[in-house]
Amino acid sequence: MPTRIFCASESGVISRIFCRSAGPIFEAQPLFLTNSVSLARFFFIPIKVKYNLLKSKIKLTYRQRIYKEIKFIDGGFMNLSYFKTFVQVAELESFSKAADVLKLTQPAVSFQIHTLEKAYQEVLFDRSSQQIKLTDAGKTFYQYAKKMLELDNELYEKLGELKDLVRGELKIGASNVPGEYILPRLAGEFKTLHPQVSIKIDVMDSKEVITRLLAHQLDVGFCGAVQKKVPIIYEEFAVDELVIAMRPDHPLASHEYVRLVDFKKYPFVMREEGSGTRLTFKEAIEAKGLSENKLNIVLELGSTQAVLSAVAQGAGITPVSIYALFDHVKACSLTYRKAHGLNLKRKLYIAYNEKAPMSKAHTAFLDFLRAKTPAIEKMSEMEKMEEKMGGNGVRS
Questions:
Q1: Among 183, 135, 206, which residue's Cα sits nearest to residue 369?
Q2: Beta strands in the chain, from DSSP E residues, in sequence order
Q3: What is the DSSP string of 263-292?
Q4: What is d(CA 390, CA 189) in angstroms, rounded to the nearest whole number?
Q5: Half-sphere exposure (CA, 13 Å, Cβ side) for 366?
Q6: How far apart are CA 9 and CA 29, in angstroms?
Q7: Could you tell me which residues come within 8 angstroms of residue 297 by beta carbon, excluding any fewer than 6 positions away?
Q8: Which of 7, 264, 324, 356 has the fewest CB atoms found within 10 Å of its own CB?
Q9: 80-162 CATH
Q10: What is the mean pLDDT of residues 315-332?
Q11: For residue 166, is pLDDT > 70?
């Protein structure tokens, strides 16, 4: 005597289920669950058997099959395929023809229509004659079922369009030079191309950029220094050069270059520890045998503009990106000299966490930046200025 169980399925006609091991055959009776109590009882049936569904040959656990097959209408979500079945039956006026079109069995079609009628407590078809007809309730139901299916198709198309639409939020962290002098224009260009992307740029030192990338608090970072042994990918973005900024009446302003020995004679205003600018300068002078401890650092400030303001007030000299000096040199509040014998050129990098997932906005922004030629584009204005200044911050 086979064991009898109850199961619920889309078709309601699962008649026989058997074990992979060709063990006992189970007979199944269709069961429609109408409330949360019966649902709770149903899911806690203590049966854990793997079986092959005779028709589909899909190997699933018993509960997986239940989740796959059960589609609740009363007190749960609706299965739109039932409405599609109803529309087909209504338009073809035949259960068998609808079954052929939908590639279902006729009992499956009958079960779905019966389920709808039970859920809405209305008879939708007049089955008294050989050819089925819609009842008055069925005609109303048909109008709304068509609208639901049309809306479903429209929703599907709109969601498909979103796959090609770049939208969302970009959180960018940048060190002072790219954050204040390069990124604003680039972000504006990208925003024009992708107006549905919101962009937030926070300016911080290079060390903090990497820290936040590692904490997944930023999507993209821009920095002038590289930290090794961290899961961060760096891509060269632009080439920057540090020069020595000073007031136009500073004693060094009359020199063609600033020499290493001059650094010991005059006070310095520096960026804070962790700044890419400071790290580049420190590595360059130490490569020539001069320790940063030998410098007379009178002020440490947290932004490039603060440093330049202090220098403009006569507080000292400072190594600074040539990008940052354009407005100050143009206004004649500052000038600059290059450091003789020091390699103060540095790369600016795009940085991102290799372990972080990338949104479409994230990917589009990186592709946008890669398509640029920033080392040429961004230096063009400074080169023009250098021509006017005689190539070393001195007006010709």
A1: 183
A2: 3-7, 16-19, 25-30, 50-53, 59-61, 125-126, 133-134, 168-174, 197-203, 220-223, 232-246, 267-271, 296-301, 318-321, 335-337, 345-353
A3: GGTSEEEEEPTT-HHHHHHHHHHHHTT--G
A4: 32
A5: 18
A6: 10
A7: 267, 268, 269, 270
A8: 264
A9: 1.10.10.10
A10: 91
A11: yes
Token reading at 188 = 């504006």
Q: pLDDT class for 389, splitting at 50, 70, 90?
A: low
The whole-number pLDDT of residue 373 equals 57
* In contact, 322 and 382? CB cutoff 8 Å: yes
325 Cβ contact partners less than 8 Å away, ≥ 6 residues apart: 243, 245, 308, 334, 336, 393
Per-residue pLDDT for 338 more than 90? yes
DSSP string for residues in 179-218 = IIIIHHHHHHHHHHH-TTEEEEEEE--HHHHHHHHHTT--
- What CATH topology corresponds to 169-388? D-Maltodextrin-Binding Protein; domain 2 (3.40.190)
- The domain locations on the chain are 3-69, 80-162, 169-388
pLDDT digit string, tens, across residues 218-257? 999 998 888 888 899 999 888 889 999 999 999 999 999 9
**How far, in Å, CA of 149 to CA of 90, rounded?**
14
d(CA 221, CA 308): 24
Q: Hey, what long-range contacts does 248-253 have (CB within 8 A, 24 or more apart)?
A: 248/332, 248/333, 248/334, 248/335, 250/317, 250/335, 252/317, 252/337, 253/335, 253/337
pLDDT at 26: 35
- Tell me the residue type at 91: E
Q: Provide the token pair at 28.
A: 């199944």
339/245 Cα distance (integer angstroms): 10
Beta bridge partners of 345: 241
Q: What is the pTM of this model?
A: 0.52
pLDDT at 157 over 80: no
**10 Å Cβ neighbour count for 17?**
18
Q: Please answer whether residues 95 and 89 qualify as being in contact, where contact means their C-beta atoms are separated by less than 8 angstroms.
A: yes
Residue 37 CA: distances (Å) to CA of 34, 73, 260: 9, 15, 84
Tokens 């099959």, residue located? 65
pLDDT of 67-112, one tens digit each?
Answer: 343 344 444 456 889 999 999 999 999 999 999 999 999 999 999 9
Contact 341, 260 (CB under 8 A): yes
